[in-house]
Amino acid sequence: MPRIKVKRSALTVDMTAMTDVSFLLLTFFILTAVAKQPDPLDVKIPSSTYKLKVPETDIAILTIGKGKVFFEAAGQDVKISMLEKMGAQYHIDFSPEEKKRFSVISSFGVPVQSLKKFIGMDAAKRKSSGLETGIPADSANNQLSDWVLHSRKAVAELHTTAMRVSIKGDADEEYPAIKKIVDILQKQKINKFSLMTNQE
């Protein structure tokens, strides 16, 4: 009796659905990702063994290095609110477009009088403009204290919580420069703040 030959058929798996899902996920992650903003000041922070993650909301970061102070607040709504408060204090009108542009600037270190010009520039020109001389923090013109105060008010009004403060200081920075910033915080009764460090 002859053997019956079983007809062989090629096994194929339809990958169309999987490819569609992969590209949808890839597109989603690309569109929702936020690019890391470059630091305006190259700061070599000291190392530490202590681990505590810096929160992503309701925080202000003061970057200190080379005798300059830079300020960063988290949240676009907080940035717009504190800009409006600073504008009211220093009698500077900011347009809705300027407020929108300011809300996406990560960190800045310019006197408030140069802020309109700074906001009007694109990111590449800001670096080379020479405007980033640091936020004035001396006793005669203490704009840093005003920025901290107005950002705290903005967080309290918008998020009904207390703002946290972190200091990101250069490892080579002299002690008096850091002490001056700590004194500004303590005058506003901010006695609890964190120091940002690298992990050892």
TrEMBL record:
Its main location: membrane. It is found in: Cell membrane. Keywords: Cell membrane, Membrane, Protein transport, Transmembrane, Transmembrane helix, Transport. Pfam families: ExbD. One of its GO terms (molecular function) is transmembrane transporter activity. GO terms for cellular component: plasma membrane. It comes from the Bacteria. GO terms for biological process: protein transport. It is a single-pass membrane protein; Single-pass type II membrane protein. The keyword Hydrolase does not apply. Belongs to the ExbD/TolR family. This is Biopolymer transport protein ExbD.
